[in-house]
Specification:
Number of helices of chain B: 7
Order of helices and strands of chain B: HHHHHHH
Largest sheet of chain B: none
Largest sheet of chain A: 4 strands, parallel
Structural class of chain A: alpha/beta
Shape of chain B: globular
Distance between the termini of chain A: 80 Å
Oligomer: heterodimer
Distance between the termini of chain B: 40 Å
Helix content of chain B: 40-55%
Radius of gyration of chain B: 16 Å
Strand content of chain A: 5-15%
Number of strands of chain A: 12
Chain lengths: ~600, ~100
């Protein structure tokens, strides 16, 4: 293999070269900007994680699996997985193989970084380089893989339903330019390499194409225009990249190490949040997932549009989108990249200024602590449970049957757990409420805190510091009572369908325990969308602006999903879900505590605590 | 003063022509739900903050209509959302309270 052009340069590489320099410059600017915006301790933590061998290896593995092979997407949808990984991994391999070619055959050209990309233009095949045939074969092979991926992408644009997506995000103008440039790159590369294949050599794709072209175009006049076109399409793509969804390609490589370093969003616009916003590939998976998008409503309020508006800096829309969301977390659960839609919204809300400060000094912590003293087990029902008295009654009955010595901390009114305040973005106020509850619980002398509301449970688990106190959800607690033989279970022949509350399932990762408990006392059926894809009941406290009337559609949609299981009754573990469903449900909606209470008898008469 | 064993309390009459209801009007613009409140008091009956700060959304709205100071009540709210669950008129009470906290002067 020899140099065909002695200077090693041709003007057609300029569009690519300019695009490449622009992209690299922009990425460098982006990295510096993000590092500057990160709080000092996060920055330190990030740098330490980069030199820690364990996180370093995890970063490499995650980047390889997520960015190139799209393993998570494969698990979810094979067709989409193939489409994305064929383009990403195929392109990566073309770049790697191009570099290997240059290193092997023309090592003196390695400093020219357009050489690996346009290798076939600059070389002429001599008889002696037969070793190149394997590389040429691989080049053609990966080009074919990419072309198949591009073909799938074109089909998806016309009929997304074939790929299991009902709705996709509407591409903005720059996204469209980027998309068409990307589609053009690889067919043009095939054409360009085909036109030069009789000089540079080729393989199973380019050589036959070259032969065909030569049959009716017996000259080399088409060579330069196609190489120019190939270079221009690369250049256009790279100039558009920073301002389009394709920014996710470099950004995800930054997102993964930051996430592995344990960094969280602290500001809705800056630092880590900015990387997440850049990493959103605008695929629109969150649109189908969003419970608000039922009946084609509120589509423009999904996370994909939030990231777009944050990039555009459209403050009015950012506020609207942030305030409307139910914060059910489903978009985050289905997102392949891991964009934290709810956290972005909470942090947007946190930036709001309130003229009237909250003041909780009137809460009588001492008298509440006195009232909570005296037992090893403290039961916290939460505000919502007070509106669903059957939950509290059932819990009392279960405690009595099992002979547990307990105190109901908020039977006659207590303090809110602080989560609603936190969700509305008033984080300092929420912390003030948390401190009040902490001092009551710590002062009560209890060793176990049983919580029945998943909203509170998540808050207690994540934001409370209660040394020496076990925080346990009542589902786990009841299971322990049954396992310890303190409750005896009888089976009923009813069949229940379990609704995963957002805060318990996606929020606290409890999917199996409730099903196991229900399975012990009755039949259980599954709804089509369950576990991490369960549909929010629509009653969520997360949304600030959704009106009562608009929520009805969402509730009915969630109910339809549960009805599909054909169960006798619905069962859930959240007082808010239960109240919301009860409004419109055509069959009974129960809480797990209620059905457990109906199906158990106590075995111990002596009062005692575990 | 001689102690008669009883006293006359100050008049609590409100002259509606003179009170300043601009805050209520601004609230209604930002959250029209405030207008459909029928003062049933369900919100106040269920309020978590009620026992500690006297919070009752019914009283807050009534107070605004009369131009009274409702800050001490409002500042005790923990946004738990029980009022929105029981409101027979379906008012988005949490948004109403947050809006009010935002525009209060």
């Amino acid at each position: 293999m020899i140099d065909r052009i002695s200077s090693g340069f041709h003007p057609f590489v300029l569009p690519f070269l300019a695009g490449m320099i622009f992209v690299l410059g922009y990425c460098l600017y982006g990295i510096i900007k993000i590092l500057v915006q990160l709080p000092a301790e996060d920055r330190k933590r990030f740098f330490i994680s980069l030199v820690t061998p364990k996180t370093f290896l995890k970063n490499i593995r995650d980047i390889f699996c997520d960015c190139l092979l799209h393993v998570k997407l494969w698990k979810r949808n094979r067709l989409l997985g193939y489409m994305h990984s064929s383009i990403a991994f195929g392109w990566f391999m073309l770049i790697v193989l191009g570099h290997i070619e240059v290193i092997l055959f023309l090592p003196h050209r390695i400093h020219l970084f357009y050489y690996p990309i346009f290798f076939n233009f600059f070389v002429a095949e001599t008889d002696s380089t037969i070793q190149g045939s394997l590389l040429f074969f691989l080049m053609d092979f990966f080009l074919l893989i990419i072309l198949s991926g591009i073909a799938l992408a074109m089909i998806k644009r016309v009929r997304s339903r074939l790929f299991g997506m009902r709705r996709t995000a509407r591409p903005s103008l720059l996204n469209q330019i980027g998309l068409y440039a990307l589609w053009a790159i690889f067919p043009l590369r095939l054409l360009a390499e085909s036109f030069t294949a009789h000089i540079s050599g080729g393989s199973f794709l380019t050589e036959p194409a070259n032969w065909v072209f030569r049959q009716f175009l017996g000259n080399n006049l088409n060579m330069l225009p196609t190489w120019w076109a190939y270079s221009i399409s690369l250049g256009v793509f790279m100039f558009v990249l920073p301002f389009s969804r394709y920014m996710h390609i470099p950004a995800e490589m930054m997102l993964i190490p930051l996430r592995n370093a344990g960094i969280k969003i602290r500001n809705a616009r800056k630092g880590f949040a900015r990387v997440e916003v850049w990493s959103c590939p605008n695929c629109g998976v969150c649109i189908d997932a969003c419970p608000m998008s039922v009946d084609k409503a509120n589509i423009k309020d999904c996370t994909v549009y939030l990231t777009r508006q944050i990039r555009r800096g459209n403050e009015r829309r950012i506020e609207e989108i942030s305030d409307k969301c139910l914060l059910c977390g489903k978009c985050e659960a289905v997102c392949q990249v891991g964009v934290e839609g709810p956290a972005l919204r909470i942090m947007t809300r946190a930036e709001r200024k309130y003229a009237l400060p909250q003041d909780y000094s009137s809460i009588p912590v001492e008298s509440l602590t006195e009232a909570a003293k005296g037992s090893k087990v403290l039961y916290y029902g939460g505000c919502m449970s007070q509106l669903v008295p059957s939950i509290g009654r059932s819990m009392e009955s279960i405690f009595r049957k099992a002979g547990v010595d307990y105190k109901w901390m908020d039977r006659d009114g207590g303090i809110c757990c602080g989560r609603p305040m936190f969700l509305s973005g008033r984080i300092k106020e929420a912390e003030e409420i948390v401190r009040k509850n902490e001092s009551v619980i710590l002062g009560s002398g209890a060793g176990t805190l049983v919580v029945s509301c998943p909203i509170c449970y998540k808050m207690f688990k994540e934001k409370y510091t209660l040394p020496g106190i076990r925080i346990v959800h009542y589902i786990n607690y009841i299971e322990e009572l049954i396992d310890a033989g303190r409750l005896q279970v009888t089976r009923s022949d009813l069949c229940y369908v379990y609704h995963d509350p957002c805060e318990l399932g996606r929020g606290a990762g409890m999917y199996e325990e409730p099903r196991r408990l229900i399975g012990r006392i009755a039949g259980i059926a599954e709804a089509p969308k369950n576990r991490s894809e369960s549909i929010c009941c629509g009653g969520s406290l997360g949304s600030l602006t959704l009106s009562f009337a608009k929520r009805e559609k969402m509730t009915r949609n969630a109910l339809d999903n549960l009805y599909a299981a054909k169960a006798d009754a619905l069962v859930t573990a959240c007082p808010l879900c239960q109240t919301t469903f009860s409004r419109y449900a055509d069959r009974p909606v129960r809480d797990i505590a209620e059905i457990v209470d109906m199906q158990t008898v106590g075995t111990i008469t002596k009062t005692d605590s575990i | 003063m001689t102690d008669f064993g009883f006293k006359l309390s100050k008049s609590s009459a409100i002259e509606l022509d003179k009170v300043d209801t601009s805050l209520y009007e601004r609230l209604c613009q930002a959250e029209p739900g405030a207008r459909i409140c029928m003062n049933c008091g369900s919100c106040g009956a269920t309020c978590t903050a009620g026992p500690y700060s006297g919070m009752s959304l019914r009283k807050v709205i009534l107070g605004l209509q009369r131009g009274q100071d409702v800050r001490s009540m409002l500042s005790g709210c923990m946004l738990c959302g029980k009022c929105s669950m029981v409101c027979p008129r379906g008012i988005n009470t949490r948004h109403l309270i947050l809006t009010l906290c935002r525009i209060y002067d």
